[in-house]
C-alpha cells in the first residue's frame, strides 16, 4: 500500500487558459500562485494548503498524461511508492521521463513526481519534496 500523507493539488484541463484565469480571478477571487514556465498555458491557484492547477490542453485519451485532469497526493517516500507500484504491476510515468510533456520545470516548485492511471483511466500524481 502507498502511504499518502496529504492532498497537494487537483489539476483540471481547460481549452483556453486566459479565459479560465479571468474566470477564476473574477468569480472565485482565488490567489494566483507561482508556476513554472511550462510549455503549455495554465495557472496555479492557492486554496489553504492546497492548489488548483489549470492546464491548457486539448489532448484527451487513456494514456498516462501529466497534463490531464488529475489528483496529486503527497507521499513521504517517492522511491518507496515507485517500488510498490512496480510490485503491483502498475505502469507509471516518472517525472524525469515526463520532461518531453511538461518541460524541465523548476523542481523547487514541482518536487519529485510520478503519474499513473486508476482502473477508469483517471490520472493520479504522487509527489514528494
Structure characteristics:
129 residues, alpha+beta, 2,3-Dihydroxybiphenyl 1,2-Dioxygenase, domain 1, eight-stranded mixed beta sheet, globular
Can you tell me about this structure?
This protein has about 130 residues and is an alpha+beta fold. Helix content is about 25%, strand content about 35%. It has four helices and eight strands; from the N terminus they run βαββββαβααββ. An eight-stranded mixed sheet has the order 2-3-4-1-5-8-7-6, with helices on one face. β7 and β8 form a beta hairpin. The longest helix has 12 residues, at about 15-30. The two termini are about 20 Å apart. The model has no long low-confidence stretch (mean pLDDT about 85).
Topology:
Layout: E1 4-14, H1 17-28, E2 32-33, E3 42-47, E4 50-56, E5 70-75, H2 78-87, E6 92-94, H3 99-102, H4 107-110, E7 112-117, E8 123-128
Parallel strand pairs: 1-4, 5-8
Antiparallel strand pairs: 1-5, 2-3, 3-4, 6-7, 7-8
Amino acid at each position: 500500500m502507498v502511504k499518502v500523507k496529504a492532498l497537494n493539488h487537483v489539476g483540471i484541463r481547460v481549452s483556453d487558459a486566459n479565459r479560465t484565469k479571468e474566470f477564476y480571478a473574477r468569480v472565485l477571487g482565488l490567489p494566483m500562485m507561482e508556476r513554472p514556465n511550462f510549455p503549455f498555458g495554465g495557472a496555479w491557484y492557492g486554496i489553504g494548503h492546497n492548489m488548483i492547477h489549470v492546464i491548457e490542453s486539448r489532448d484527451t485519451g487513456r494514456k498516462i498524461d501529466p497534463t490531464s485532469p488529475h489528483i496529486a497526493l503527497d507521499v513521504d517516500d517517492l522511491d518507496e511508492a515507485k517500488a510498490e507500484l512496480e510490485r503491483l504491476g502498475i505502469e507509471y510515468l516518472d517525472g524525469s521521463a515526463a520532461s518531453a510533456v511538461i518541460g524541465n520545470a523548476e523542481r523547487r516548485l514541482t518536487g519529485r513526481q510520478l503519474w499513473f492511471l486508476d482502473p477508469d483511466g483517471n490520472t493520479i500524481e504522487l509527489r514528494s519534496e
